[in-house]
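re: that chain from earlier
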Amino acid sequence: MDRVVLDETVHVGKEILIEGPPLEALRFQEVRVGSLVTLTDARGDDFRGRVVTLSPEGASVLIYEPFPSPTESFLEIILLQALPEKERMEWIIQKATELGVSSVLPFKSERSISLQERESKQKKAHRWQHIAFKAVEQSRRARVPRVEGYRSFREALDYCEGEGLKLLLWEREGKGLKDTLRRSHPRKIYAMVGPEGGFTEEEVHSAKGRGFVPVKLDQRILRTETAAITLLGILQYELGDLG
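^ sequence. v structure.
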């Protein structure tokens, strides 16, 4: 549902008819007539197209541009983000999508604001997935990152039961990120970023018990949104498709 993959090869200048599961994926991206989309054909090549017609039965897309290389990173990154105040979550989702994140999971830590507190001022959580859709269109990605439902800290840890490198940003006693990455070559990373006040020692202890490695970005103390985007950029540069 997060990527439009066709069972045929496509050619620039041709209009193709999309039905079945690829149409469901197209609709998941909330496209309209005139929307620009990235498609993957049967050979695994990515193309850019424009939606010409759209109906419940199918859609036609005019292919106008090939990509010389895949638009998606082979590195799967799951960003677990402690919910920040104001509109910072929207900004994080937008920029994380542009940087190729696979999914985003907002959670409540001991020192972060709760979703109820944030939504009492102005309801915005319902827009999170839509923001990812728009960022995908702007960045010409083929895959839409899924914005998971808001969870507690414990539930966020439960979400990370699968294989992969698990990193937790902790400015107090974390290991150096550079050295940690150079000792590992993962294809999947769980990246957990805390609130402005940082994680408590109890939270770090719990995360370590679930396989997380506390790391830090040198001696600088960054705002939570800056830390999240910096971490994603470094991960894609060192292990993914940036650079």
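The first strand starts at residue 15 and ends at 18.
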